[in-house]
Design a protein that fits this description.
Length: 459
Amino acid sequence: MPADFLAEPYKIKMVEPIRMTSREERQRLIKEAGYNMFFLRAEDVYIDLLTDSGTSAMSQEQWAAMMLGDEAYAGSGSYYRLKDAVESITGYPHVLPAHQGRAAEKIVMDILVKQGMVIPGNMHFDTTRAHMQLRGGKPLDLIIPEGLDPKSRHPFKGNIDLDKLENVLKQHGKEKVPFVLITITCNNNGGQPASLTNIKEAGELARRQGIPLFFDIARFAENSYFIHTREEGYREKSIKQIAQAIFACGDGCMMSSKKDGLVNMGGFMAFNDRSLYEQACQLSIINEGFPTYGGMAGRDMDALARGLEEVLELSYLKFRMGQVAYLAEMLLKAGVPIVEPPGGHAVYIDGRRFLPHIPQEQFPAQAVSVALYIEGGIRTLELGSIVFAEKDGQTGVSKYPELDLLRLAIPRRVYTNSHMEYVAAHVIDLYKRRDTLKGLKMVYQPPVARHFTCRLEPL
Ligand SMILES: *Cc1c(COP(=O)(O)O)cnc(C)c1O
């Protein structure tokens, strides 16, 4: 162990038992689940790396704060505590809660996006993109080319391409561009960060055209930590100061607090502009709830207010990001092909390089996923040929994505480093006998979002 190795910066007060099943049981369970991880019961999973969303462990302070929740319909004290927490980080004075991130997205898109508009960003999240399209808008991903290269070790693979952004803004102007949206960290290429220099310049380009810059901030603390460790000039700044510097470049944000809020449900919007906030309140009243709760219980707003403070603590982030890097390093040392450098919240295995003998139409990343469940009771998520294949409407031939990845998402404060060692041991063991793994075929698929409910069979 290196001397700067950091163990968990917390000790355990309450335990949640996890159950190890037998290999025979797991073979039966995964078969019954149609070889689809979404159909497994959580109690049949030993280590659950399906997602980092809504799976965080709360602290004793958050649980204590829940007891102080004020459940008043209007003017709840919990709301004002949340508003103060959000405003002190973002500087945006107008704060509106929502029951989760996508609800905030829907409200913002309904107000600002109209037929034929374009919305440039580094890389929009799936539901965000869908809400733009539902309004007749066109989402544009302007990520730098390194952001799409799994072998590039660029420190800020979430940066937006500034030349492309400038061209789009000049070409369409403020009549057709309602706002620019930067997602931090950039989720769709693996939790990769954007640099402060890049964010500042994007903000200036937008401002010059009179266009606002917004942020999608599900993992803003992890992005701030990457700036702290990787970008010149931010070593001496606190994580909170870095977050404040990010938000100062823009005009508003939307958050899914299921990630860096360190809570299990919730979200919010925050804006500089009062009239935008007032329009959002109107939509909140008919869709989410009165503006001082917006779909959240008072106690949940208190837990979130506290979570937003804890997520900016350096000791928390150092361990969190160190844990993801620790898992990645164990795999790299054994030659397992992963996306480098690892992002903030997950390690991604490259399915095509892991199983070069399995063609993409036989879902190599899913084959690794199924084997990891059978061998170790570990649940992971395929983000590749099952999720992203596009069928040609005329020929019926499937077009597969360039990358066939398997995501090992790490929940916040939930697993110990010895759980990571267990996961690494199983991945490495599988990699050593990768020649014995076989592909899968799809036997049922629904018309949309097939990964959630499709069924497979081993070949
Ligand atoms: C999770 C997420 C969302 C959507 O939030 P939900 O709380 O799941 O509705 C939006 N953007 C990003 C970047 C996310 O990670």
